[in-house]
């Protein structure tokens, strides 16, 4: 796969993470074990979870400017995680909760 293809894939994944909550499953580079998280890059969601910490919602996201890895905020573990895009096992958008009440 070319560098251009990697860049496109990373931009798509990051774009989806910026506006959605997703289920992400990836193989940990250190152990080879599958790791599953609910994650996002939505600033409003991240701020709710790290308001009591010193780090900002932008801090970790800016570190992942390369195309080899993708950082995201894990709602599962309440912290920042990253994975190599080529270790991605699964990625699905979680539909937003509907506010429609049954009639």
What does this structure look like?
Strands 4-3-2-1-5 form a 5-stranded antiparallel beta sheet. The protein has helices spanning 3-19, 43-50, 59-63, and strands at 21-27, 34-40, 69-74, 79-84, 88-94. The relative contact order is 0.24. The chain is of the alpha+beta class and 103 residues long. The protein has one domain: SH3 type barrels, CATH 2.30.30. Mean pLDDT is 82; it is low at 98-103. β1 and β2 (34-40) form a beta hairpin. It is 29% helix and 32% strand.
Based on the model shown, name its key terms.
alpha+beta; SH3 type barrels; five-stranded antiparallel β-sheet; 3 helices; globular; disordered C terminus
Quick structural summary:
This protein has 103 residues and is α+β, with helices and mostly antiparallel strands.
CATH class: Mainly Beta
Q: Please state the CA-atom Rg, rounded to the nearest Å.
A: 15 Å
Between the first and last Cα atoms, what is the distance in angstroms?
51 Å
Overall mean confidence score, pLDDT: 82
Shape: globular
Structural class: alpha+beta
CATH architecture: Roll
Number of strands: 5
> What is the CATH fold-level name?
SH3 type barrels
What is the topology, as strand order, of the major beta sheet? 4-3-2-1-5
The proportion of strand residues reads 25-35%
What string gives the helices and strands in order? Answer: HEEHHEEE
The low-confidence parts are 98-103
Q: Number of folding domains?
A: 1
């Amino acid at each position: 796969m070319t560098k251009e293809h990697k860049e496109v894939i990373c931009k798509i994944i990051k774009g989806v993470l910026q506006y959605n909550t997703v289920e992400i499953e990836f193989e940990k580079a250190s152990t080879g074990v599958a790791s599953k998280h609910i994650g996002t890059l939505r600033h409003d969601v991240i701020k709710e979870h790290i308001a009591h910490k010193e780090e900002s919602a932008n801090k970790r996201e800016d570190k992942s400017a390369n195309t080899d890895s993708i950082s995201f905020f894990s709602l599962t573990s309440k912290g920042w995680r990253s994975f190599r895009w080529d270790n991605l096992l699964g990625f699905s958008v979680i539909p937003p909760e509907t506010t429609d009440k049954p009639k």
